[in-house]
Every structure is written in structure tokens, then in C-alpha cells.
Amino acid sequence: MVVGLWDTCVLSQGIEDYENYYNEIHVDDEQAEVKTRNALQSPLQRWPGQRIYYRIANNFSEIEASNVRYAVSSFNDQTCLQFEEMTGNPPAGRRYVYFKKSKNMCGTRVGYQPLQFGSHDVQLTERCLSMPGVIQHETLHVLGLFHEQSRPDRNEYVEIDYDNIPRKYWSQFMAMEQTTTFNVPYDYQSVMHYSKNAFAKDPTKPTIRALIEGKPVERDMGQTRGPSEGDLAKIRIMYNC
């Protein structure tokens, strides 16, 4: 569990401030390193077809349910995917995304799980449900995207200050070679990118610096407003839009 990060939100409102409690990249998870890649390569881990069914738990407030619908509608508008809300049972044999409320968890499994049946759960706290961009971040995980700063070519674009990061969080920043970027340019403004101060021991100093002409510079990165063009480009390529 992350201690004290909620107190630093005034300094850093990065996506990691929303999903750092019991999320899909939990630091005590033995699979944490595997889960920090950028984009799934295997077609088996992409949702079959372009229509994805989803359900909203019945304990959501009207505003929370509206935020979920608004969040997924962006993919309907900007990609070839079509999220369709269910009112009854899903078509026979089809998995569906289930947005559920949690007291302390914002997270989900990454990518389609071909050996599982029923719902693919997305757990969201009230705080996460108040931010459509955070809901979209988790939906991009569902579709198969990991965090931007862990893509295999990231050392060309960012420098990680491990001295300012507790060792138990180092796996969150590892570059993974066994994945693909789909040749989409590195995106500092991806909704999948951590903020410059993510998991910092000293939150007044960055843990991630951009590399400009090979030299580290401090700049803002990451955001919680919603998918960037780079995020959407990966989804379009992954799903043959």
C-alpha cells in the first residue's frame, strides 16, 4: 500500500494518484513487472470483434453512471470500437466489461482474458468515478494498453531517477522489451503516462525527466483529462480500425 501519496496530490495529480491502491499493478503482485508493458502483442488478448458489451453496477449514482457512459462514448466516437450498454444478459458466449464500485480499489486486468468467462471487472472508487479521464485510463487497460513510461523504447525519451523512488516501486518504471509500441511516437501527454513526480520520496523533485536531445529536462507529463491522440492511435491499430 502506498503511504502518504494522497497528501501529495496538491503537488501531483497524476494517474498514479488514482490507481495506486490495490490496482492492477499492485506492488506486491508477483506479476507486477509483467504488467507494466505498454501494449499487448498477442491478438488473443484483444477483445474479439469491435463491439464490446458493458454493464454498470446498480449502486452507482446517476452522475457516476453518466460519467462511465461519457467515458466509453469517446471510444465509440474516435475509434471503430462500439461499447454497448447491456440491460439484460450478454449474447451467448460473449464476455462483457462490468464497471463496479469499490471502497479502495481503482483497477482492472489488462487486456482480454480468453480463458475466463463472464464479466471483466473494472473496480472504481467514488473518487475515480468522479473523473471520466480516470475511467478512460482503466478502459484502455481493459483494451490492452499498459503505462506509457514502460514502453520498450522509453530510455530514448525519459530518464528515471530511481534514487527518488522507493525500491518496492521500481517495477512500475521498468522498460519492457517483450511488447510493441505499434510505431506510435512516444507520448508525454498520454493518459497512460505517470506524472513527473510519480511515487517520489521527495515529491518536490521529479522521478521522471524528459530527454531532449539526450539531455534530461523537467517537464509536465501525463494527465487525467482523457485519451491522447497517441492512445487512440494504438487502439485503432490494435483493433484494425
Descriptive notes:
The protein is an alpha/beta fold. It has a domain at 43-146 and 232-238: Collagenase (Catalytic Domain) (3-Layer(aba) Sandwich). 18% of the residues lie in helices and 15% in strands. It has 4 helices and 8 strands; from the N terminus they run E-H-E-E-E-E-H-H-E-E-E-H. Helix 1 crosses helix 3. The longest helix has 17 residues, at 62-78. Residues 1-12 and 20-37 have low confidence and may be disordered.
Task: Based on the model shown, name its key terms.
five-stranded mixed sheet; 8 strands; disordered N terminus; 241 residues; 4 helices; Collagenase (Catalytic Domain)
Question: TL;DR of this structure?
Answer:
This protein has 241 residues and is an alpha/beta fold.
The N- and C-terminal alpha carbons lie at a distance of: 39 Å
Report on the biggest sheet. Answer: 5 strands, mixed
CATH superfamily of the domain at 43-146 and 232-238: Collagenase (Catalytic Domain)
Shape assignment = globular
Strand order of the largest sheet: 2-1-3-5-4
Number of helices: 4
Q: How confident is the prediction overall: mean pLDDT?
A: 84
| Strand content range | 5-15%
CATH class designation of the domain at 43-146 and 232-238: Alpha Beta
Query: Structural class of the secondary structure composition?
Result: alpha/beta
The CATH topology of the domain at 43-146 and 232-238 corresponds to Collagenase (Catalytic Domain)
User: What is the count of β-strands?
Assistant: 8
Summarize the amount of helix as a percent range.
Answer: 10-25%
Low-confidence stretches: 1-12, 20-37
Order of helices and strands: EHEEEEHHEEEH
Architecture per CATH nomenclature, i.e. the level-2 architecture of the domain at 43-146 and 232-238: 3-Layer(aba) Sandwich
Radius of gyration: 17 Å
